[in-house]
Backbone:
């Protein structure tokens, strides 16, 4: 009987201790992973997304890299990338992190990818069945701050025409990762609006690209600096245009004057 009492007493202490454990109140940061598109000339491109994996080093644990899995939760994993223009972004996942440093991000894709032009579907085959696409990214997480990690899926660079007729394509997903902190917005409108030209923001040896939406509007999120903007109409009836020395200032939105492409 005494043994039973001792057992029950120890069990009660254990349960009491478990009940007294409060929530984890250690300082944290919120990490949002967003997907944006730098679309190509195609009507639509649909890709399958599983989620992202973050390489993370917690403060005080230098050299110990944790792999943090952030799944894309919806049951339907297929995303039409060409809708993600002019500031539209898809939230892939969000999660609270302990304080520390993010060192890399890996976008994990599924295997179902396709391009649509008119009523025709063209399957896109991943090279060597590779589904993981990683980018180094240094982000120091501080308490109470929300961080947007942006994955820019550049379709202009990802899809290459290897044969025009019949159409054959080479597909190699090209993704750039960055944090929105320290970036500024550059936006404008291109006429005629029905063209949906490709627009390139070029700085030194690097470039980002996007397209306009149905209203002719486009938006970049860029590091402060000076850029050359090249507008490719993707239509032989119109002449390409170039804007030189476009300044993007820190923590400001730069709105360009209306851009009108000339007919040949």
Residues:
């Amino acid at each position: 009987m005494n043994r039973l009492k001792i057992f029950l007493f120890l069990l009660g202490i254990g349960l009491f201790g478990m009940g007294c454990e409060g929530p984890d109140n250690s300082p944290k940061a919120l990490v949002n992973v967003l997907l944006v598109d730098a679309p190509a000339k195609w009507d639509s491109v649909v890709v399958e997304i599983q989620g992202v994996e973050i390489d993370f080093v917690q403060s005080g644990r230098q050299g110990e890299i944790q792999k943090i899995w952030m799944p894309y939760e919806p049951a339907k994993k297929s995303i039409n990338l060409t809708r993600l223009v002019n500031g539209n972004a898809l939230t892939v996942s969000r999660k609270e992190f302990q304080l520390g440093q993010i060192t890399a991000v890996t976008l994990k894709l599924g295997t179902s990818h396709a391009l649509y032009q008119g009523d025709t579907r063209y399957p896109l085959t991943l090279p060597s069945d590779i589904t993981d696409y990683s980018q180094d990214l240094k982000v120091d997480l501080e308490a109470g701050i929300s961080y947007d990690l942006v994955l820019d899926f550049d379709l202009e660079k990802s899809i290459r025409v290897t044969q025009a007729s019949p159409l054959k394509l080479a597909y190699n997903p090209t993704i750039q990762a960055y944090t929105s902190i320290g970036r500024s917005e550059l936006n404008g409108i291109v006429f005629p609006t029905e063209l949906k030209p490709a627009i390139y923001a070029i700085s030194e040896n690097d470039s980002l690209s996007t397209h306009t939406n149905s209203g002719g509007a486009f938006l970049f999120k860029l590091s402060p600096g000076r850029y050359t903007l090249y507008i490719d109409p993707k239509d032989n009836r119109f002449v390409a245009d170039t804007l030189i020395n476009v300044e993007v200032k820190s923590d400001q939105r730069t709105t360009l004057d209306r851009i009108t492409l000339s007919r040949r």
